[in-house]
Specification:
Layout: E1 2-15, E2 18-31, E3 35-39, H1 46-53, E4 61-66, E5 69-70, H2 76-82, E6 83-86, H3 97-101, H4 118-127, H5 144-157, E7 162-166, H6 174-187, E8 193-197, E9 208-213, E10 216-221, H7 223-229
Parallel strand pairs: 3-8, 3-9, 6-7, 7-8
Antiparallel strand pairs: 1-2, 1-4, 4-5, 9-10
Helix pairs in contact: 5-6
Length: about 250
């Protein structure tokens, strides 16, 4: 089942007083219970593509759908809660592991919702091979790899249907990066999908790979993972088409 779909995405920026297109008419679909990689040269617009999908920047054109519902029908705050973007360097607050895992429930966007119990949080830590990390431990005592897993678990704990990861393993050693990949594949299950930016060699956890290059988005499937993830081929996006685009006005540039 397709959880997330983007069609005709176009994003440009102003350079020397002229419009420069970063990517145009890009399209993709993400299936339930599948992890996808997004690769491409530095500066090709990968992070911008994720931000556009999360409605964190304006787009020149294109449409976004979550479970078949168009983005225009979903309030911006609700969309960002359901299409969760984890930045390359997610910030952890001073305090304990518990403080950081329940941080989303201290924010207005989750007002009135019940945070996970300690037993639920402990179960998450166990699944991330962090069973020896106490909820009451200060995060200043964690290694870089442990910090990255705690940050990822915090996003998973909110149970977003779509998880967008902006190269969260960039600063990690190979073993820690593979642990992050394994954890992502383990936790992305029913009613969830994930698109992650990577510059590392394929780790075998992705159902397929989108490549953003020269303004065009292409897709190739990994057959061995498609069966695990239950994914269908992702749609490819073309670049520089002459079809008119409608302006998207959802959220200012951040």
């Amino acid at each position: 089942m397709t959880l997330f779909r983007a069609e005709g995405l176009t994003v440009s920026f102003s350079r020397a007083g002229e419009r420069a297109v970063l990517f145009e008419n890009a399209a993709l679909s993400l299936e339930e219970a599948a992890v996808y990689d997004l690769v491409g040269p530095s500066g090709s617009g990968k992070s911008t593509l994720l931000r556009a999908c999360a409605r964190m920047i304006e787009r020149d054109g294109g449409a976004l759908y979550l479970n078949g519902a168009p983005s225009d029908a979903v309030a911006l705050t609700k969309w960002r809660r359901q299409v969760c973007l984890v930045p390359q360097k997610p910030s952890l607050v001073s305090g304990t592991v518990r403080d950081n895992l329940v941080l989303p429930w201290t924010l207005k966007v989750h007002a009135g919702e019940r945070p996970p119990s300690d037993s639920e949080l402990a179960n998450l830590l166990d699944r991330a091979a962090l069973g020896d990390v106490e909820l009451g431990r200060d995060v200043s005592q964690l290694s870089g790899g442990q910090l990255a897993r705690v940050a990822l678990l915090r996003a998973f704990a909110t149970k977003p249907p779509v998880l967008l990861l902006d190269e969260v393993d960039a600063a990690l050693d190979p073993d820690s990066a593979r642990a992050i990949g394994r954890l992502t594949r383990l936790l992305v299950g029913e009613n969830m999908t994930c698109l992650r930016i990577r510059h590392r060699a394929a780790d075998g956890f992705a159902a397929g790979t989108f490549e953003l290059k020269d303004g065009a988005l292409s897709y190739r499937e990994n057959p061995s993972q498609a069966a695990i993830g239950g994914s269908a081929p992702g749609r490819t996006g073309s670049a520089r088409q002459s079809a008119p685009v409608a302006a998207g006005r959802e959220g200012g540039l951040r």
